[in-house]
Each structure stands twice: as C-alpha cells, then as structure tokens.
C-alpha cells in the first residue's frame, strides 16, 4: 500500500470525524454573535482554531496507524 493511500475503513473513520467536526462548526457559528467585519482574527477564527486542535490529532492518529 502506498504511503498516501488509506484503507476504506480508515477513510470511513476519518469521514465520521470530519462530519462530527462540521456539525460542531455549525453549532459554534450558530452560538456566536454575527461578525461586524471589523476584525480579521475574531471569535470565529479562535473557535475554528480550537476545533482544529481537537480534531486534527484524531485524524492524524488514524493516518499513522
């Protein structure tokens, strides 16, 4: 198996994590007040960064198995 190629099972597990991540982004965006556009690095950016820190290690662990 190539280093870039994942099994079907691993791809399915990663897809489930990504789906969960997307749902959490939607919920997070619904809970935050609308952006006034005056800040480049506002609460939405910080919330997305926190979610990335949560979900990327899960995905990387699957890839490293």
Classification by helices and strands: mainly alpha
Based on CA inertia axes, which overall geometry fits? elongated
Helices and strands, in N-to-C order? HH
Largest sheet: none
N-C termini distance: 13 Å
Q: What is the arithmetic mean of pLDDT? A: 86
Strand content: under 5%
Radius of gyration: 15 Å
Low-confidence stretches: none
Estimate the helix proportion, in percent: over 70%
How many E strands?
0
Number of helices: 2
What does this structure look like?
With 65 residues, the protein is mainly alpha-helical. The mean pLDDT is 86. Helix content is 71%, strand content 0%. It contains two helices and no strands. The chain has helices at residues 8-31, 43-64.
Would you kindly provide a brief summary of this structure?
71% of the residues lie in helices and 0% in strands.
Task: Summarize the topology.
Elements (H helix, E strand, L loop, with lengths): L7 H24 L11 H22 L1
Helix pairs in contact: 1-2
For this entry, give a set of tags.
65 residues, mainly alpha, elongated
């Amino acid at each position: 198996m190539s280093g870039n190629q994942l099994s079907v099972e691993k791809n399915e597990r990663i897809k489930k994590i990504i789906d969960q991540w997307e749902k959490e982004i939607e919920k997070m965006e619904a809970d935050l007040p609308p952006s006034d556009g005056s800040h480049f690095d506002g609460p939405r950016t910080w919330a997305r960064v926190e979610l990335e820190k949560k979900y990327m290690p899960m995905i990387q662990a699957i890839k490293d198995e």
